[in-house]
Amino acid sequence: MRSPQHNMQSDTSSAFNAEQIDQTFGLEPVFEPGGDQRLAPLTVWLDICCPHCWSSYASEFELGIGAENRIEDCPQCCGPIQLNFQAEAEPDQYRLGVERAY
Ligand SMILES: [Zn+2]
Question: Does this model's pTM top 0.70?
Fold first, then answer.
């Protein structure tokens, strides 16, 4: 035989727990602001090997514009270098063509 006192205790306990859970979930933020993983750097630095003097230096390329073709002078020998930069669909994957510009 169950005593009325036992049932009352059980009901009170479960109701209290449900209220606690509800409060906990209501107060906690669902999303962290600023936690967007898709925030990537806008530029990337790649090593360029000069086709004139074979020295290497770092050059900056813009991401998000697809392909970038430009001519710049080697900081060592001032030789003109044609750079063909292409960002791949995969993150951190780039295609870079380096050749003499004359
Ligand atoms: Zn050079």
Answer: no
